């Protein structure tokens, strides 16, 4: 009986400690622990990337939309579908670059064909690019101005995120 009471007391104490840890606010930027390593006003670290066809992609003049995504992710797929249906696709001054986190060129080529994407796709198989901008969470949208400075960053886990992509 004493052994049972000791075990019950231990479980109760452990439970209260764990719930107290959960209730303590963490110094994270997002409730899911997502951290963003680039902020409005910062300059985007990459000025040239290599697309899945082996061609260099330089950041152009004008506004840029960088999308960090994964082809298997339903949130990424929804965001890309929203983008394809948006007026952003008709803007000749907007450069769109999508970077596939933990994706290789062959997978992204198949995804481009099946998904009907006509903007540059960049493979990032080892997170070398992604890890410079965030710790986790996809899709990530990074809006850049004419000087490649960050205007805004968004985490696209909810529907309608493309509606928030505005440079004004």
From TrEMBL:
Residues 41-157 form the Redoxin domain. GO terms for molecular function: oxidoreductase activity. InterPro entries: Redoxin (IPR013740), Thioredoxin-like_sf (IPR036249), Thioredoxin_ResA/DsbE_sf (IPR050553). It holds the Pfam family Redoxin. The keyword Signal applies. It comes from the Bacteria. Residues 1-20 form the signal peptide. Keywords: Signal. PANTHER family: PROTEIN DIPZ, THIOL:DISULFIDE INTERCHANGE PROTEIN DSBE. This is Redoxin domain protein. It comes from Pseudoalteromonas rubra.
